[in-house]
Amino acid sequence: MANNNVGPKRLVVGAGYGMRDWLAQRVTAIMMVLYTAILLVSFLTGQNFTYEGWAGMFAQQWFKLISAVTLFGLFFHAWIGVRDIWMDYVKAVGLRLTLQIATILWLVACAVWSVQILWSV
């Protein structure tokens, strides 16, 4: 009897987090679309198109919160995409690990900087 590795008893290899990451990218994409819609409605219904108007909008706690959540979603979305690029196209393990660590450090720095910007308004 030949084992052709087909069906429910097949040998699954790999990291095993494909579906979770696929779903996370869809959820974070929806978050970014909703945030963009809120931002667009706020812009189109506003009358004060000056720096003070924008600063006033971002000074509200609820707007800071949804902005921060959306930015964290963006950074997670970017991490999944860039990590997949590194895993698919960089075959040297040491270089791939270095690129992944550099990506994580860059995204964490961007997250810290975005929180600093949001809460300084």
Attribute tags:
4 helices, cell membrane, mainly alpha, 3 helical TM bundles of succinate and fumarate reductases, heme, 121 residues
Description:
A ubiquinone binds at residue 89. Keywords: Cell inner membrane, Cell membrane, Electron transport, Heme, Iron, Membrane, Metal-binding, Transmembrane, Transmembrane helix, Transport, Tricarboxylic acid cycle. Membrane-anchoring subunit of succinate dehydrogenase (SDH). It is a multi-pass membrane protein. One of its GO terms (biological process) is cytochrome complex assembly. Helix 3 runs antiparallel to helix 4 (93-118). The chain has 4 helices and no strands. The protein is elongated and about 70 Å long. It has one domain (18-120): Fumarate reductase/succinate dehydrogenase, transmembrane subunit (3 helical TM bundles of succinate and fumarate reductases, Up-down Bundle), CATH 1.20.1300. With 121 residues, the chain is mainly α.
